[in-house]
Design brief:
alpha/beta, elongated, 6-stranded mixed sheet, 3-stranded antiparallel sheet, 355 residues, 9 helices
Length: 355
Amino acid sequence: MTDTPRSFARTIGIDYSGAETAEASLKGLRVYLSFSDEEAQEVLPPAGPKKYWTRRGLAAWLMQELDGRVPTIVGIDHAFSFPMRYFERHRLAPDWSSFLDDFCAHWPTDEPHTYVDFVRYGHVGNGAARTGERTWRRLTEEATGSAKSVFHFDVQGSVAKSTHSGIPWLRALRRAKPELHFWPFDGWMPAPGASVVVEAYPRLWSANYPRSARTPDQHDAYAIARWLQEADCSGDLAGAFAAPEPEPIARMGQVEGWILGATWPPAKKPKPKPKRKPSLQGVAPARTTRPGFLNRNDQEVLRKTDLPGNDHNQLVYILRCRRCGERYGANGSDIFQRRCPACGAGRPGLPIDHA
């Protein structure tokens, strides 16, 4: 790819899944790995009864692989922390390590046979004591413009279950491998030679690469691994590690977490062009042509006829004056302003003899 010195010999992209339990074989949990200049390839779980990765099995594999001998960057597709409003509501210290311990005490989604929904609905743990609002978003989610809230469950594109099931395994990995750099909580710029774990949002990159025969989950994991590889080669990764400005945003990012590649301030979305209103010339608004409609001059619509009017594409409607009872014909496009031809000095009515 390039001769630019790299920080990482290996990149790993993980498209996460919060479905079922930590022991379940999950088709949506996919892992891709690139080494040196080689194209990212899918990593399958060890041989055994499980066809796909389990969350528990993936955590064990990462603990084994991230042994410090090969500098590696791992991108995982779920949030690593919660919005500052969550910390404020529950009076938690703005510290990620403390957050992990507190969260796992209330949301033990890494325990055997435990679904996220078991905790949500009070069957296990105490999730009700540690909740947030679906409208709460982290600054980094606002920065992307499209990432959903970590509390927005049960919608297309939601990361809520992935996040609530994945955070306990981040804690387990951090405890097993204290030398790992969890970005940006351990600092915005990792030390040379360190292996790094980052929050990834594949939507930022997946459109850059042909999907080929990959499933959407496979392609998201592939896109993470490949973008990390290419960005490391080009030098763009160092820029992506840089702290957002101003400094208060960076401080908050080290509590809430940050999506690698998200930039601050958020890009302004272009305002949609106002839709041109269709011309009413020759077209009668549907409301004014309904039988019973009464215009401001006390002219009432009785019914529509099949007779052609004398305005473009119009039919004749029979109107009656509420003041004098006069009946006459009018174009549908004229109804809203029509005056009685007998008592209101209006124009002569259209013929209705054969209506």
